[in-house]
Amino acid sequence: MKTDVLKSIRETEEEYQAMIRDAQAERKKSLSDAELEADNLVRKAQNDAGDYRNRRLVEARAQAQNRYTEIVKEGEARAETLKAQGGKNLTKAVDFVVSRFKEHLHVKA
Description:
Elements lengths: L1 H104 L4
């Protein structure tokens, strides 16, 4: 009977030791899974941040190009306006220069 009790105690201890080993193994697996998931989340966040940064850069470049095009068009329009205004006054300017030249030469026309 003593041997049966001792045998029963030993079996119970072995069962508890097995349960402890299983629990520790499960704990290690859970920690490993959690670390892997955390690494994946960090990697995904970094990729998302990089994608967002790239999209914003593309948008900023497009806005800068649009503004550049707008400024060039405005400059060309202003140049055409000034050229047209200059063309209107060209005859008057030539007449004025010629008359001043004649005055310097004391020529009467």
